[in-house]
Records
---
Amino acid sequence: MLKVPEHQVAGHIAKDGKLGPLVDDQGIFYKPLQGDARGENEAKFYESFSSNKNVPDNIRGYFPAYHGVQLVEASDGSGQLPHLALEDVVSGYVKPSVMDVKIGSRTWYPDVSEEYFNKCIKKDRETTTVSLGFRVSGLKVFDHEESGFWRPDKRVVLAYKVDGARTALRKFVSSNPLADSVVPDCAFASEVYGGSNGILTQLLELKAWFETQTLYHFNSCSILMVYENDESVDDAPRRARVKLVDFAHVLDGNGVIDHNFFGGLCSFIKFIKDIVESSENCCENGH
Amino acid sequence: MHLKAPEHQVAGHIAKDGKPGPLVDDKGRFFKPLQGDSRGEIEVKFYESFSSNTEVPAHIRRYFPVYHGTQAVESSDGAAMIVLENLLSKYSKPSVMDVKMGSRTWYPEASEEYIQKCLRKDARSTTVSSGFRISGFEVYDHKELSFWKPDRKLLNGIKVDGVRLALRKFVSSNTLSDTSSKPDSAFASSVYGGSNGILTQLLELKTWFENQTFYHFNSCSILIIYENESIQDGDARAQVKLVDFAHVHDGNGVIDHNFLGGLCSFINFVRDILQSSDDQSTQD
């Protein structure tokens, strides 16, 4: 039985009879193949990536597992349509906080249409893409006081400037994201961002690969960050996880590194690192 | 003060049609005319800030020209000039390359007109595709015993393969103007490799760029220099220097991801040439 995913924070949503992704109860995420070249390009990427022997095993874990293209009943009632069958990266989480961050100081790339270029560069300049090398696309964060999710509107998120992005990254690891007038407590910063299995460690592993890989250019791709909030089990681990998603605009690297993604990733890492360090200082000062 | 035009300018402004260009003296100093509009002001502001910034580590300071303040120079009609270290004064036969770093040369604070001009130039060159472009270079030909410079127009149209070829020619000893012979990359390991070579220096710079949030080095170049007089004995005296700070802005707590991405890409190009030349020499 297929249903609309609960935890989508960015991208198309299968709501109100619109075409969008679906999930089953076996941990599979079905993404409808978009009509134009994008769906084809994404499938082509997954085919190439899943059989590429030059991708190290530890890096493969940062990408959703690929289960081919399958015919599935579309969410808008238009019948059986080809869908990309992927690992549902949030299945197995009870109450996940999720954040989608688009990496790179530009979302356009050489040889795109003038129309697409103008659309992209306008958005890149209006958001933090140009200034920070990344932008927050969407997020939902569990609030432990209200027992509900903070899910800012897409328009609010796209209007973030540098401070807004920083605050969102702090709220992402806070127990009180819904409290507007209070400073985010960054209660989970060291468990989620820090630690030997935390987000920062994973990002640094990805960074090392991006310093030399010339296989793919991940134009307009996002990094998804997920962690668990369910406290029904004592000392439940946060299980913070980084995944790369959205490969509709990936191109061959042709012997050149993905300097656009790499620069943005390094900038993102610096932001996370600063939050970890300031939260560690907070604890030392007894706040 | 005896001033003359510098011998080995490979990019940037030169004295032409009555407009002032840079000058050098015989005491190892380089005089750069203060560019009109705000650029000259920005460059001075950067040098003032940088030279007194105690948080810049000593091993990074070596990658920047020493600043000697500003001075009015008579031979240029009393025009104000920035006085810098002449990076080439200690070289007798330097090969020099100017590489503009970053996948974009524009920045948010610039005027719309400037942004559009840069976007066009960036797209036409290897800036967008590779994260850097070669602005110019001059290399000593050990067979012809003279300096060779590629045609400026030719350089503007090169693509990724052209960049690789230029980086190989830059460290070759064979006749450079002869396009039929392959560059021998004879000096690749002396110049690019080794514990004091270009690659080592670039990697040191990269580490600093992964954390520094003081400055955004928009449109800056990396200059690569080495000595031809001693290179046959394996002594390259290779040096990396950052130059051209007319568009530098405050980092405001954000790293210079634009420069860093381009620098990392450039490092890969240099490393590839070094490795393929190492492979070649083990096969010979």
---
Amino acid sequence: MGAMFRSEEMVLAQLFIQPEAAYPSMSELGELGTVQFRDLNEDVNSFQRKFVNEVRRCDEMERKLRYIEAEVKKDSVPIPDVQELPKAPNPREIIDLEAHLEKTEGEIKELSESAVNMKSNYLELTELRQVLEKTQTFFVEHEETNGMDSVHRALIPEDTHNVSIRGRLGFVAGVVNRERVPAFERMLWRISRGNVFLRQAEIDKPLEDPATGNEMHKTVFVAFFQGEQLKSRIKKVCIGFHASLYPCPSSISERDEMLKGVKSRLEDLNLVLNQTEDHRQRVLISVARELQNWSVMVRKMKAIYHTMNFFNMDVTKKCLIGECWVPVKDISVVQKALTDGSNSCGSSIPSFLNVISTTENPPTFNRTNKFTRGFQNLIDSYGVASYRECNPALYTIITFPFLFAIMFGDLGHGLVLLIFGAYMCGFEKKLSAKKTDNEIWNIFFAGRYIILLMGIFSIYTGFFYNDVFSKSMNIFGSTWTEDIKSYNWTTVEMNEAMELNPTTDASAIPYPVGLDPVWQLAKNKIIFLNSYKMKLSIIFGVLHMIFGVCMSVINFVHFKKISSIFLEFLPQILFLICLFAWMVVMMFLKWVFYTAQGTDVKFGTSCAPSVLIFFINMMLFKENDAPKGCDVYMFDFQPILQKILVFIALLCIPIMLLGKPIFVMISRKFSKKHCHSNGDINQGMELQPEVVEEPKQLEGHNEHEEEPMGEIFIHQAIHTIEYVLSTVSHTASYLRLWALSLAHAQLSEVLWNMVLKMGLSDPSFVGSIKLYIVFAFWSVLTLGVLVMMEGLSAFLHTLRLHWVEFMSKFYAGLGYPFQPFSFKIILEEDDNEED
Amino acid sequence: MGASYIPFIVFTTLWAIVGIVLPFVVPKGPNRGIIQVVLMLTAATCWLFWLCCYMAQMNPLIGPKLDRHTIMILAKEWGNSPITLAK
């Protein structure tokens, strides 16, 4: 059968791989992505597994890669995207890679450290230079006050004794953070009791802190004091305020010399710093090219070793054994991958695959392409299908957009959806290459084919509802207006509004495709549309549900539960058909029989019965009342037919309730009878057709087998009640198709009449400007409310109709998804995590 | 019965071709089953949708209630002759 009809057949396979060939074989299997490995060492601690050292090595390499990447990003070196992903490296390449990574990491670390050292040197020299320059002025003044400069120098040199008595001031010079200057001043004042003289000058340019790279504003200060004790106190205060002290000579000549020396050293240091920067850039650029490749290779390696930890070592220590789930279709591909792996490492003994039988439940695997993946996701969100169960996603491809379109039916809005969907599908290669974090865009993009189909079907239903942004098109000629000339002027003038007579005014032929355009202009349009759309919803709803019940037959046939076809499917479908399909038939009969154009009054417009009242009276076994001159029923044998249908339906209920449990009971008895050929425990108990009393006695004996009998009865009772009630409630639930389409049409009309009409009503030049502005409002509201909001709402309701009304009739949904060992999936997951 | 047979024939044959004939013509490939199911479902749903719309208007039980200005414009634009004062 087709690809998506049911999930693929899976087998449990044992892989026997030679240890040398294990790594390349796993690499091949990872590239393929078609097997799911089972963990054979579940109770083993992750630190005691076989390949834990290799995993550790990979972790180390990843750490180094992360460090390098951080450094590359810090310097904003662009990392080029790698086009084709490399394969996992073989063991020789691994050693090379490790060595290379270590070398690069060491190099970068060294460069960073030396850069930091040099920068702090640079800072010190810069500060020293600032100190020397700024304190120039202080010392000149100081010398003036001391009378040391040439003008004031005494002609006769005074003896040193007097000079010392005059009290030369000592000083310390340094640099401190600008923010700390006031506190620094205060502290110095306090410790010296006001005997310290502080001069300060700000450094204009901010300096770079070597460790953090932040910019700091600093101030040069010179503190003058007298005496040694004060000196030590001042030094302690400077240490406390993280002020750096610099040896500053007091004489001018020495200072000039020092300044020159500092300047030349600064220039040299600058040169070296720039060269280091360039070297670092070069290293980083050359590394950045390889970075993506390396990280992909390391991740693949880690995945391979992690998966190899799932394997068991054979008793003879000669080969590794692994267990995996493989789709039957892919067994040959897997075998080829194994032989490729063992060939690439030159192993003489080939690896092989052995299928083992098991009673375990295999995972559910549906092979999807980019078109069907969206629909499969919709179904899987509700629950993953049980193994080999019928896959509803195949039908969802069409029924989902179609039911959406019934609710959304507007040609104009459908066109917007179609354009959006076509844009996403047409440019999908470009758009999928752009990896964005925007969740909403990613969701829309993943469902692009769904949106495309929804747009196409909405255009179809919009054409039929004759609704283009709430206006109708008259393509084939309205059939209500050909005879309108029979009205004369006075009749029309006198009456505010007139209802056209279906007998005389409608031509014999209805509008061929869709709704007649006259209805859009009618004041009583909703009455007609309600009748039409409600019937439409029920017709499609009942058909959808019958389809769902029929799907259960396919499941019963596949799982060889033939008895269930007669005991479960048959009563279910009869119940549904006898009651609700009959209602659908009545709708069609009403459409055909009752006309305004016939001569028979009994089938005229005034006698047309309400189908709903018919249905209710049928269920309650009541008689219809009919107005005078009309027949009670649509055709002669209708009452008898209805009674038969209700009777059959009521008969189905006990079959649903008791059929399967009694069958299970009887079949257990039979199998027990076969088991105990001699020495029957149940001596004297014969198999009787009347088994109502027996179940209680048998209950105890059957407890150790599958389910106890009592539970089966209860389950079946719950099932039956659920099914019977759900037929009614789900049928009514499909009326949301009518409700939402009505809401959509009304919103669209309101938007036109209240918003766009304002712009269209003024024919002058000013009117054109008004129209320009009004159109902006109208289009924003159309896109935001009618397309986005109504679209999402209709999407949700359609999803609910599928999940609850359709799938509850047959879907079990108890499987678990197939998670293959695939590099593609692992790399994607890592990317998403990083983001 | 107020219905002509031409639309019936046209639409039924159109969707019959899509739903019954085309599935045989689908090229062989891994997606053959999917395309066949898609064609059949599309044909069935679209044909039924057209049928319901057509049958609902075949024998209308009520007529549209139109404002008098609308009637006059309809008579002029869509109808065979405008309603004149002379009448």
